[in-house]
What we know:
The protein is an alpha/beta fold. The chain has three domains: 2-77, PUA domain (Archaeosine Trna-guanine Transglycosylase, Chain: A, domain 4); 81-192, Transcription Regulator spoIIAA, CATH 3.30.750.80; 213-404, 3-Layer(aba) Sandwich (Rossmann fold). The chain contains nine helices and 21 strands. The strands form four sheets. Strands 1, 2, 3, 4, 5, 6 and 7 form a seven-stranded mixed β-sheet that branches. Helix 5 (244-251) runs parallel beside helix 6, helix 7 (291-300) runs parallel beside helix 8 and helix 8 packs across helix 9 (357-367). Pfam families: MTS (PF05175). Residues 222-361 form the Methyltransferase small domain. One of its GO terms (biological process) is methylation. InterPro entries: SAM-dependent_MTases_sf, Small_mtfrase_dom.
Amino acid sequence: xxxxxxxxxxxxxxKYFKSPWIFSNQVKHLDDKLLxxxxxxxxxxxxxxxxxxxxxxxxxxxxLLPDCIMDKVENNSISSEAFIEQLSVYIKKLQxxxxxxxxxxxxxxxxxHGDNDGLPALAIDDYKSVLVLQSSAAVGDxxxxxxxxxxxxxxxxxxxxxxxxxxxxxxxxxERTRWIEKPKTDSSFDISCFFAHLTMSFSxxxxxxTGLFLDQRNNLxxxxxxxxxxxxxxxxxxxxxxxxxxxxxARSGVSDLTLIDQDAWALQLAQKNVEQNALHTPLIRxxxxxxxxxxxNLNKSTEKxxxxxxxxxxxxxxxxxxxxxxxxxxxxxRLAHNLLNENGILVVCSCSRHIEDQDFLESVSxxxxxxxxxxxxxxxxxxxxxxxxxxxxxxxxxxxxxxxRVL
Length: 407
């Protein structure tokens, strides 16, 4: 049984609760004696029917839950069973909503994009053979067992947890990589799925994040369409990870592919994914190590490419890293664009939520030479990575397709 405490909001700009969270300086905090050892509890916002999870020790003090939870609240409490049941009802509706985006049949997608989908700090990716779940905060850990029970009621897929990464380290939370609900037969870590017209493979126990970066879906599809009208023979994939960008290129007929990544296992995985999607048997070269060192070495040679993709990990892990990150994007762009052939295409990405879109584009443009550069397309994150209609960090993924035009 959960007791639901009333909490007062002292910042009136949150009157309409358009954001899924409320910060520490915007609430009147509860007494420690009312909280569990982790200083977490369920709360109702005073004067509203909004319910959320309160964490006194976090900068984000309240993270809102789906409104339907309030339907089962009686006398300021809700049973664990009713809480799980309402979560299962909500997740089922979430599945239906995500499927309206008309992804290809049996295509992997993000079921929950954390707070933006009403499941605070919990990302859930559906790979059709397994659900992969990631908790990024203490609130996510609090909610996780109830969401797992709810998932079991709406899906018979096995459930794997990959709660790892920088955010958990910042919150001093342990990393977890484990089966929560094992497959009934083969419990192999190797997964194959369909994504952005590709057949992609990865390993649950070695992958980054939840496995694949499904947020790049629309940008990968755009590249596939773009390659139909360009004579691209040679490509360079910087920070290739599982090789999705190169796999799209190979599937479109590009036969000479170079991939750079600092993870040796990821390069092996990428080569496999490129080969299984290639239109023809490709020539694949993998470069293991620091991207800047390899780019500098390539700049010293006479080698050129028709297509270059630069999709690095987040350079800005926090706001204090923004200035350094902007310089890194400029350096990356400068080194990469020098390797392009005439009329070559450069794709540059940033998944740093602390970098504003305008700042990223400015950093990229500073790295370009004084030649004639044309913006072909501004990419976006897949709609399954839910964006709210609020001016916050919901739109974290930046992706620009740029052409080196020579007329």
